[in-house]
Design a protein that fits this description.
Layout (H helix, E strand, L loop, with lengths): L6 H8 L15 H22 L3 H24 L3 H16 L5 H20 L3 H12 L10 H17 L3 H15 L8 H16 L3 H15 L7 H17 L3 H18 L4 H17 L3 H18 L8 H13 L3 H18 L6 H15 L3 H18 L5 H16 L3 H16 L6 H17 L3 H16 L7 H13 L2
Helix pairs in contact: 2-3, 3-4, 3-5, 4-5, 5-6, 5-7, 6-7, 7-8, 7-9, 8-9, 9-10, 9-11, 10-11, 11-12, 11-13, 12-13, 13-14, 13-15, 14-15, 15-16, 15-17, 16-17, 17-18, 18-19, 19-20, 19-21, 20-21, 21-22, 21-23, 22-23
C-alpha cells in the first residue's frame, strides 16, 4: 500500500487551522547561483574564444554562452540586482555580435533585448524601456515568419511598459498587434495565444471596460483548458486575473472561486514559487475585504506578510500589496494610526523605488488622504488628495472610471471640511464620467447620487436632495439586495429629510 501523499494533501494536513498555505522557502538561492554561474561562464568564454580551432564547436559554444548570460541576468533580476543583470545581458549581446547572421542567433539577440527592456520596467524606468523597445523593433523583419515569436516578445514587453506607464490606449493597441502577429503561426491552444488574450484583457480592465476584459480572460482560460500541466504559469495568471475582474464586478463568490483554483494549482504545481502563492493570497485578502470579512482578511494577510519578510529584502516592492491591504483592514477596524503606519511604510518604498509619476502612486495618495481625513488631519488629507488628482488627470483618459473615483473622494473630503460648493462640483464631475462610461457601475453611480443628495441637503435644497436620494435607490436596486446596508442608509436619509 502506498502511504505517500501529494503536496496538496500534505499542505492540507499541515495547515488544518488555516484555509490557505504557502510552501516553505527559507531564502532565495538565486543570488549565489547567479554569481557562481556568471564566473564560470566568463571563464568558459575565455577558453572557447582563445583555444578552439573548430569553428563549428566555437560557434555552438558561443551561442550557448550568450544564452547562459541571458539566463544568469534573469536570476539577478529576481534578486533585484539590476546592475549585475544588465552586465550579463550586455555580455550576451557582445557574444552574439561574434556569431553569424542567421535566424537562430537573431532570435537570441531579440530575446536578450526583451530581457533588457524587462529589466528597465522592473526598475520602473518605463520611458527608457519604451524608447529602447521602439528602437529595437524598428530594426526587425516582421515579414520573416521564423522571427515573429521573438518579435512578439518585444511587443509584449512594449505593451507591459506602456501599461505600467499608464499609457493604456497605447498598451491596448500593442497587445492587439501582438496577437495578430502570432495568431496564424501558432496552434489555437498555444500558451502564447493565452498570454496575448491575457494582455488584451488587462488593457481593457485598465480602461475600465470590465466586460471586454472578462471576455478575453475567459478566452485565455478556454485556450489553456487542454494543457494545464504544460502552461501552468499562464493558467495561474489567467485564473487570478479572472478572480480580480469578478471582484471589480462585485461578484465576490466567483472571485474567490477562481482565486482558490489559482492557489490550489500554484501549491500543487509550483511549490517552489512561494512568492507567487503569496501574491494570490493577497488577492484573496482583497476579496475578503470587499465582502467585509476583515477578520479573515487580517488572518490571511498577516501570514502573507510574515512570509514576505522571510524571503525579501527590506524595502522590496513586493511588500506593497501586504502594506496596502493591512492599512485598509486596520482603517475599517477604526485603528487609523496603525493604518497610517502601514501606508507610511508603503510610501517609503514608493519614494525609494518608483518614479514620481508611477500610476500606483495614485491609490497610495488616495489611501493616505482618506486615512488622514479619518484622523481629522484635513490639511494632509487635502494635500495627498490633490497629488492623487493631479497625477490621475495626467495619466488617465478624461472619462476613466478611476478619475470618477478620485473626484468622488474629493467631494467627500470637501463635504466634511464644509466646502460644499467645491464638493458639489467634484460630485458632478464624478457623475458625468460614471453616467457616460462604457461600463455602467450601478453601485458607484448610486453612491454618487447619495453623495449629491447629502450635499443638497446640507445646502438646504430638500427637493433636489430627495431627487438624488431616489435616484440612488433606483441605482442600488439594479445591483444590490433589498436588505443591503447602502439601501438601508438611503431610506433612513429620506425618512429624516422632512422631519
Amino acid at each position: 500500500m502506498d502511504n505517500s501523499m501529494s503536496l496538496t494533501e500534505k499542505n492540507a494536513q499541515n495547515n488544518k487551522s488555516n484555509e490557505f498555505s504557502i510552501p516553505e522557502i527559507k531564502v532565495s538561492p538565486y543570488k549565489g547561483i547567479a554569481t557562481m554561474f556568471h564566473i564560470l561562464c566568463s571563464k568558459y568564454q575565455s577558453l572557447v574564444e582563445g583555444d578552439s580551432d573548430d569553428d563549428g564547436f566555437r560557434e555552438k559554444s558561443l551561442y550557448e554562452i550568450a544564452h547562459t548570460y541571458m539566463v544568469i541576468g534573469t536570476l539577478y533580476d529576481d534578486t533585484e540586482d539590476y546592475e549585475d543583470s544588465m552586465i550579463c545581458y550586455n555580455q550576451g549581446l557582445e557574444v552574439c555580435e561574434s556569431l553569424p547572421d542567421n535566424t537562430m542567433y537573431t532570435n537570441l539577440k531579440m530575446d536578450i533585448h526583451s530581457c533588457i527592456a524587462h529589466c528597465y520596467t522592473q526598475q520602473r524606468k518605463y520611458q527608457e524601456a519604451i524608447k529602447y523597445l521602439v528602437d529595437i523593433i524598428s530594426t526587425t523583419d516582421e515579414d520573416n515568419p521564423e522571427e515573429l515569436i521573438a518579435i512578439s516578445a518585444l511587443y509584449i514587453e512594449l505593451g507591459r511598459a506602456y501599461k505600467n506607464a499608464g499609457q493604456y490606449i497605447d498598451a491596448l493597441n500593442i497587445n492587439i498587434k501582438t496577437f495578430n502577429l502570432i495568431k496564424d503561426i501558432l496552434s489555437p491552444n498555444d500558451s502564447k495565444i493565452a498570454t496575448a488574450y491575457n494582455n488584451i484583457a488587462a488593457s481593457y480592465l485598465d480602461l475600465g471596460d470590465f466586460q471586454n476584459g472578462l471576455k478575453f480572460l475567459l478566452k485565455a482560460l478556454q485556450t489553456l483548458n487542454t494543457q494545464i500541466d504544460s502552461a501552468t504559469c499562464v493558467t495561474i495568471t489567467t485564473l487570478c486575473n479572472i478572480g480580480a475582474t469578478y471582484r471589480n464586478l462585485y461578484k465576490y463568490d466567483d472571485s474567490l472561486k477562481y482565486l482558490k483554483k489559482a492557489h490550489e494549482l500554484c501549491v500543487d504545481k509550483l511549490s517552489y514559487d512561494g512568492l507567487r502563492t503569496a501574491n494570490i493570497l493577497s488577492e484573496i485578502s482583497n476579496t475578503y475585504c470587499c465582502q467585509n470579512k476583515y477578520d479573515d482578511a487580517l488572518q490571511n494577510e498577516t501570514k502573507v506578510l510574515k512570509f514576505r519578510e522571510k524571503i525579501l529584502k527590506e524595502g522590496s516592492i513586493e511588500f506593497i500589496p501586504s502594506f496596502s491591504i493591512l492599512s485598509n483592514i486596520y482603517s475599517e477596524f477604526g485603528d487609523y494610526e496603525k493604518a497610517l503606519n502601514y501606508l507610511k511604510k508603503q510610501l517609503r518604498i514608493h519614494q525609494d523605488k518608483l518614479p514620481v509619476d508611477d500610476p500606483t502612486n495614485i491609490s497610495l495618495y488616495t489611501n493616505l488622504s482618506c486615512t488622514y481625513s479619518d484622523l481629522g488631519d484635513y490639511d494632509n488629507a487635502e494635500e495627498y488628495l490633490k497629488k492623487a488628482i493631479s497625477l490621475g488627470e495626467k495619466i488617465y483618459p478624461l472619462n476613466h472610471y478611476e478619475l470618477a473615483s478620485l473626484y468622488s473622494n474629493a467631494s467627500d473630503l470637501y463635504k466634511i471640511m464644509g466646502n460644499l460648493k467645491i464638493a458639489l462640483n467634484y460630485a458632478k464631475k464624478a457623475l458625468n464620467i460614471q453616467e457616460n462610461s462604457c461600463f455602467k457601475d450601478a453601485k458607484s453611480i448610486g453612491i454618487t447620487y447619495c453623495n449629491l443628495g447629502e450635499i443638497y441637503e446640507c445646502l438646504g435644497d430638500k427637493e433636489k436632495s430627495l431627487e438624488y436620494y431616489n435616484k440612488s435607490l433606483i441605482s442600488f436596486s439594479l445591483c444590490l439586495s433589498e436588505n443591503d446596508s447602502h439601501i438601508e442608509v438611503v431610506n433612513k436619509k429620506i425618512q429624516n429629510l422632512f422631519k
